[in-house]
């Protein structure tokens, strides 16, 4: 016997007539009759009495149907499980991101995501952008947000966000009184720099070099959140995302615009050749809703 024959038998028993079973299965009534006859030959006993065009189940058919119904309950469970896996994956989502996003957009987006999917477990790692890329490329994580200095070979990368960067200044520093800072304002100023490989650092270095300006580098770090904490402590000024600076405003830090503009780009990274599950797509939607351009 095969599954199709059993499915036809189940449909006839459930719906009461061969014609109704044919409608439900979207096949012809002769096809229903043929499948039942083939099943009867396979199992070695009659399933229906045929009288005046009607199919009346035998006692053996009723006993057999109990077993079939039990098996179909398992099949329905398997179909539901397959749909759940297709739409929601493993029931968990793993997000890797650079530090600037981990303390700004990500908490708000994940809170909104959690309200939609309270039973989905969430893993977050804040790492350097190059490590984020490796975690996504290896398939260990589902969604990544990284600065654009990385090599995107081995991942699917799209532009997620652009921001105009600001200069974070200690609140008691003379430059804190300026709304807009220019390269000359940073000459000889104690400065907390991003890592040399950071795209924003390289762009700022290019602008300063073009103006013959040399700030006094007192500390280097790959993390803009660290820069804000150091600025808050009065160690120096630094180039940061306005989102990163936001929690520090009014708490020992002032954010000043800088001209000429320097913009950062954040990339959305996904594992290659993998269609996002429903929960991954929903997470991306929430992240996008909180991004700024």
UniProtKB/TrEMBL annotation:
Query: Which residue range or ranges hold the HTH lysR-type domain?
Result: 1-58
The identity of this protein, by name, is: LysR family transcriptional regulator
- Key word Amino-acid biosynthesis present: no
Please give the family membership noted in the entry: Belongs to the LysR transcriptional regulatory family.
Keywords tagged on the record: DNA-binding, Transcription, Transcription regulation
Classification via InterPro entries: LysR_HTH_N, LysR_subst-bd, NocR_PBP2, WH-like_DNA-bd_sf, WH_DNA-bd_sf
- Entry-linked Pfam families: HTH_1 (PF00126), LysR_substrate (PF03466)
GO terms for biological process, alphabetical: lysine biosynthetic process via diaminopimelate; positive regulation of gene expression
Q: Which domain of life is it from?
A: Bacteria
Quote one Gene Ontology molecular function term.
sequence-specific DNA binding
């Amino acid at each position: 016997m095969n599954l199709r024959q059993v499915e036809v038998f189940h449909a006839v028993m459930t719906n009461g007539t061969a014609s109704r079973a044919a409608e439900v299965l979207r096949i012809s009534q002769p096809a229903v009759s043929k499948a039942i006859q083939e099943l009867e030959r396979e199992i070695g006993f009659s399933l229906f009495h045929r009288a005046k065009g009607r199919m009346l189940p035998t006692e053996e058919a009723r006993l057999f149907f109990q077993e079939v119904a039990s098996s179909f309950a398992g099949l329905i469970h398997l179909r539901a499980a397959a749909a759940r896996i297709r739409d929601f994956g493993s029931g968990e989502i793993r997000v890797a991101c650079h530090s600037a996003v981990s303390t700004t957009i990500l908490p708000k987006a994940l809170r909104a995501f959690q309200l939609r999917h309270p039973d989905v477990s969430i893993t977050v790692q804040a790492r350097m952008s190059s490590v984020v890329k490796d975690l996504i490329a290896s398939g260990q994580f589902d969604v990544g947000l990284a600065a654009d200095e990385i090599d995107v070979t081995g991942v699917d990368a799209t532009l997620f966000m652009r921001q105009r960067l600001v200069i974070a200044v200690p609140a008691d520093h003379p430059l804190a009184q300026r709304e807009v800072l220019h390269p000359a304002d940073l000459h000889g100023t104690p400065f907390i720099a991003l890592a040399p490989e950071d795209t924003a650092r390289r762009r700022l270095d290019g602008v300063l070099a073009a103006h013959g300006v040399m700030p006094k580098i007192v500390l280097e770090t790959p993390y803009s959140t660290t820069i804000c904490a150091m600025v808050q402590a009065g160690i120096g000024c630094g180039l940061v995302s306005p989102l990163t600076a936001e929690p520090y405003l009014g708490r020992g830090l002032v954010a000043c615009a800088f001209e000429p503009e320097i913009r950062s780009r954040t990339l959305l990274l996904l594992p290659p050749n993998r269609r996002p599950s429903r929960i991954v797509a929903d997470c991306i939607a929430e992240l996008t809703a909180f991004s700024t351009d």
